[in-house]
Prior knowledge:
The complex is a heterodimer of chains A (304) and B (304). With 304 residues, chain A is an alpha/beta fold. Chain A folds into two domains: 5-81 and 175-303, 3-Layer(aba) Sandwich (Rossmann fold), CATH 3.40.50.300; 92-170, no CATH class. Chain A has nine helices and ten strands. In chain A, the strands form two sheets. In chain A, strands 6-7-8-3-9-10 form a six-stranded mixed sheet, sandwiched between helices. A four-stranded antiparallel sheet of chain A has the order 2-1-4-5, covered by helices on one side. In chain A, strand 7 (173-177), helix 6 and strand 8 (216-219) form a beta-alpha-beta unit. In chain A, helix 2 (97-109) packs across helix 4 (119-139). The termini of chain A are close together. Chain B is an all-alpha fold. Classes of the chains: A alpha/beta (304), B mainly alpha (304).
Amino acid sequence: MTENNDQEEFALDVKNVSHWFGSNKVLNNVNLQIGHGQIVSIVGPSGCGKSTLLRAILATHPPKRGEIWSDGKRVRAPNRDVGIVYQHYSLYDFLTAQQNVAFGLMLDETSLPYRALVPWKWWPQRKKHMQAAGEYLDKVRLSHAKDLYPNEMSGGMRQRVAIAQALIMQPAILLLDEPFGALDEATREELQLMLLELYQENLQAKKDNGKPPFTILIVTHELNEALYVADRIIGLSQFHDDGKNGATIVYDKPAPVFHPNDERDFLAFNAQKDELRKAVFSPENLQQHAEYVTYWNEQKQAAT
Amino acid sequence: MLETIAAFGRIAWAPIALLCRFLFGKVREPIGAPAKFALGVASILVLIASYSLLSYQRHQENPRDTTVPNASQFVEGWQKVIPKKDSPTDWFDKQQRKKYLESSWLYVDVIASFTRLFAGLSIGVIISLVVGMAMGCLPRVEAFFSPTLSFLAKIPPTAMLAVYFVLLGTDFELFIGMIAFGIFPTLAQGIYQAAKKDVTDHAVNKSLTLGASQMEVIWNVVFQQVLPRVIENVRLQIGPAMVFLIAAEWLVADEGFGYRLRMQSRLLNMNVVYIYLIILGAIGFLMDLLLSWTRRKLSPWFGE
Ligand SMILES: Nc1ncnc2c1ncn2[C@@H]1O[C@H](COP(=O)(O)OP(=O)(O)OP(=O)(O)O)[C@@H](O)[C@H]1O
Ligand SMILES: [Mg+2]
């Protein structure tokens, strides 16, 4: 990766982002680049500012300092290139699963006057949207539930629909804020597998010299999950030498890549988990963290 | 001593508790459809029976009593309100038909009152919808309207009759204005609260990431979400709207339910009065049914 400076290269480029609420300094000069097709986990102590960082990237609450770029475009307001799945309330109550997934296509590709004034053009388009939505529901294994309303679905089903709803937009980057936090263990595992399957599609696309379709940034407080679903793991923490001015990225390394059929062997994570606990979660370790922020260097070395 | 009283109390209470349990069942105890229907019919029968008893007693005392009319007096009353002319020889002759129908009090009054009611309600609903939605979505509009609206909502519209006389005269406009502005403060506030509280920031932000424009957020997200609540609020305003209409008609109309009720109650023609009350109740009930049916059709996700 020699053309790292080229912004087009990154699905997401967070530049010198700082944020604070009054005297509560939360984010301290965060820098983060994510390449297309990566699935990146963010971990960090509770309250360190992970959600604040996601809101800054989404631009619903733009950062007080710094810039967010996505796919070479400056992000100043919420837009169709940055997707989000929240932990709760992710779906529209008044739409069925399929309509929920098709919703973004409608909003993005057509306008209110268009739909009202030229319905004969809109309706056939609508049909295509619904068909595409059906395919995405297939991808998240929910084709049987396409006509259910959110209040008729379980929490896990709702999150799948929410993910399909975000993915159908093919955003430059998709943000997930503790998306499986409220789910039971079994459902959680199924959804983790779903992410691994998306990652396989990315690998396939790269092999075919195409652009990998899914770039995902996921916040989770579960270290096993973070290491299992992602190919790169980032630690955000206030436990560093300038911690009184807020949290920054203190850990950035590759994570082991799993194939959906691989055994879920979490014992293999132990070494990296210990390292994470030390670098990210330990209030005693207040030095420079350069030794833990090595992702891009490792990539460079691997390339040469 | 105290123990004796307590023991006695317990013994005395036991049969009452048993009876209550038998009559009222348990809290949230499910009830079958036939039982539900039977109890509904029973309630109407009780009403009719008590009325008949009262009427019977009054007529024992004074056979010419008109305050609590009996069946034959009701038949007389009914004959007063239906067409007095012979039915037209040719139903397709507009002139003939009109003459015939307009010889009926009931026809004239229903047409007059319900034209006013529908016109007033429609205008009131449209204004409330625009203002309520704008307030719920746009904080600037909210800040502008909310003090005035909460203040206006506290003035009883019937107390403002004089103001309406002065501003709108005593014709059609008066009734429309009375109903529309009578229901406006409460209805607008209901819609405003729903638009503000039933739609989370997440839902709005999510739609922006799906490419929604500002108008689409208002129409495709907020409005769709609050539609069933809007309809519920309109349902609740049918009663007050009728109150305002009857009050205005009582004072100034020369046709319509309020007018007829005033004239007939002055003459103590309670047979006509009761017939009018029943018809008023029946039409209100039908409007209520129609709206709840509409709500179920338009927002099937909302449940009961
Ligand atoms: N709207 C707000 N106003 C004031 N302070 C806020 C606001 N939102 C967040 N904070 C503060 O910012 C800090 C970071 O919060 P944030 O929600 O980003 O943490 P988090 O890393 O997502 O935590 P968790 O793991 O518990 O979700 C906290 O100290 C919180 O109190
Ligand atoms: Mg959070």
